[in-house]
Design brief:
homotetramer, mainly alpha, Arc Repressor Mutant, subunit A, Tetracycline Repressor, domain 2, 2 domains, 11 helices, globular, disordered N terminus, DNA-binding, DNA-binding (chains A, B, C, D), transcription regulation (chains A, B, C, D), TetR/AcrR family transcriptional regulator (chains A, B, C, D), KstR2_TetR_C (chains A, B, C, D)
Chain lengths: 229, 229, 229, 229
DNA sequence: AATGAATGAGGCTTCATTCAT
DNA sequence: TATGAATGAAGCCTCATTCAT
């Protein structure tokens, strides 16, 4: 999706510069937030005057869209490749997990912008990426459904199960920075262990838990009421 | 935490109006985002002139902090109450889960602002809420550690385990709206089932999985390389 | 000049409160400047709500006028008293000097406002105090003229001479605070010694001075030109 | 000291416009006061939109600082040049006087802002100009001290003597406008005559003065007491 | 391919003043 | 006498965007 009015010819140097500008923008957006990053900041960091910037990007929102693409496009093509593999549903899910975590970990700044500033896009852009996201989520949904059809997965609500998988993975972007580097395969194995063990085993309530739980809930209600006054 | 310079007398009506202004702000912030919501918008929605608004709030950032408090304060007092109960670690974790999900579900707009706009706060506010958040997370950490000491929980990295629990719960704010209403206790049971089953059971790799996995990873690498050009 | 609408009756407590409010205002104005001091600040410092404040003062500008009066009125009545004394012109001038410095030193905050914020008054107030100031300056003018008539003072320009006297005294308000306390009589004697010695003695150019001066001026011109480029 | 973020290229036209904006600001500040002059007023007078204005100035306070520099910088470089001349202390003082009065008379509007709105600057700016002012005053101090070392000047308090010199000169800005044009050299000669004659001659109290003075002071006390009620 | 200059709407905040109670 | 609540204009400043060159 090149900048408007830049469709003909402009090869080589143009696209190289363009990518550079986006690189710079990603860094600033992820560090300071989309709203708090001015176009001027981007220009300065890229060593380009405002006019030149607009020659490459078209608008601030287009820049945001471009960053989204950089995350979504690999995610979708990898998911498509995974879908074609002839593997068990567990492995398929683990591969999707690794693909997703690869982006989250190795392109943390892109993902930060992608997951956090999504709402800043409006109109056509918003719809476009709603659809793309939805397509990715379908891959996960379908994979889990596969396991269910095989009688391996025991869950009532498929939607919710898919979302739980995403919860587990996506929120990682929030706390990743500032921690020691994580390896994609290890983190993926950790998440998938929890998730797969959870959805493939039936629920076994420990004895006495129900009573304790009821007690606790009563206590919480009391605290809530006390705070209300 | 009343607005600066508003310490004289001001009872009843003042505090009622104040709460009303915050209510209005929460709604707008959660709908349109903090950065995209102008103080003027809040004033208009509250039926108050710009000047009067500042009589109640002090600053836009103070408003944000106030919203944070509305989420964090109950969370912390409930967590404290839970900590004092004499219950199994599973039940304790489920109660923490229910407490957290109660906020996420019943005060969804507050939580949206709380989880999404956290970074907009700066200086003292930021530190303040970093600490409060950290205190809450400690409750979860401690509870899981309790299970581990009892030999029930089998995980290597306690930090990561705590974060996984938070991932599972917190990201819920992202997709909650637009879905049919969820019951706190059901969602909590679902999340806790997955999480507790996961961390209390050892990992059992299905036969043949390793090979398939390796195959899949090779495929992913290929896709990645192809996209690189 | 009581606040508008406060003319009838309002004795005792009213006037006491009023003076208190002005006291507070003087302190704040002299410390932070007239423009930078809000009516709210005054209210807070006086322990009065905004409404009550306006009951006593009428307007911020009226407050400023009132402070001016507190300086000008004693100055004018003392000058009138001095004018009636049967003393030499030197003594008369020294008494005027002492009267003026008494205000500058003992009511430094009032004088600060009086001399510095004069221009903030507009319309009628401005004219009023232009006249009052002018009346005071006349006393000095007349006194010096007396010495000139007696053949003791040798100056060409009476206006300028009067203004030089005022320069010497008035600018004191700028640097007074932050220095060790000065005694009115000593400072007055110092200023009057310089001034009276100066205007009662003829000018005697030291030998060689003219030439050096011309040299210096040439040097200054060069510096000025160099900076201009 | 160009506006922040304006370091790229910007020659010629930029600096010309910048100077023009400052010129306009000086005029408005000196006429209406710094606090009472809005940035909008400056823009309007300069024929520039608000945004463009900030392209040139950075902030209102930076504008004020710039104006200060326009006065202080020449003052300091001229003083430095004077310090290097091999002339008598009287001539040196007269040259300092002429340098100072040159600014006061020929750049009256700048000096008005410089002397009157100094207190509006805060933080770093304030310190910066406190230091610059202090450096200039040192030149005067040192010069007078030179005369004293030579046994020509008879004063007790060097600080006070320096300040008296500044009083005499600086306050001129207050009444200069609205009078017929003054020549730098004449006014300087007038001031220096008074000042030098004053500090180089011993004090000779006229006979009978002490008694008259005492009488007058008693009278003043009476007036003051009468006003107190 | 790139620039610097300009725009104008909108950002948050403060302020002197009024008025019903 | 005194208050708290409200106003609305004005304050300074930032920003995404455009355009002649």
């Amino acid at each position: 999706m090149p900048a408007a009015g830049a469709e003909r010819g402009k090869t080589e140097r143009y696209y190289r510069q363009r990518e550079r500008v986006i690189d710079v923008a990603v860094e600033l957006f992820s560090k300071n937030g989309y709203a708090s990053t001015g176009v001027a900041d981007i220009g300065e960091a890229a060593g380009l005057a405002r006019g030149a910037l607009y020659y490459y990007i078209g608008s601030k929102e287009a820049l945001l869209a471009e960053i989204h693409d950089r995350v979504m496009d690999p995610l979708l093509s990898e998911a498509a490749a995974i879908a074609e593999l002839d593997v068990s549903f567990e492995v398929r899910l683990r591969l999707l997990s690794e693909s997703l975590l690869w982006q989250i970990i190795n392109r943390h700044d892109h993902v930060w912008v992608f997951l956090h500033e999504y709402h800043q896009m409006q109109g056509e852009y918003r719809e476009l990426f709603r659809d793309k996201r939805s397509r990715f989520e379908q891959h996960i949904h379908v994979t889990i459904a596969q396991g269910r059809k095989q009688g391996l997965v025991h869950v009532k609500d498929m939607e919710l199960t898919t979302l739980a998988f995403l919860n587990l993975h996506n929120y990682t972007y929030q706390w990743l920075s500032g921690r020691r580097p994580l390896k994609v395969e290890e983190l993926s194995q950790f998440y998938c262990h929890i998730f797969l063990t959870g959805i493939t085993n039936a629920w076994q309530q420990p004895a006495g838990a129900t009573k304790e739980l009821r007690l606790g809930r009563t206590r919480l209600q009391a605290v809530r009421k006390a705070a209300g006054s």
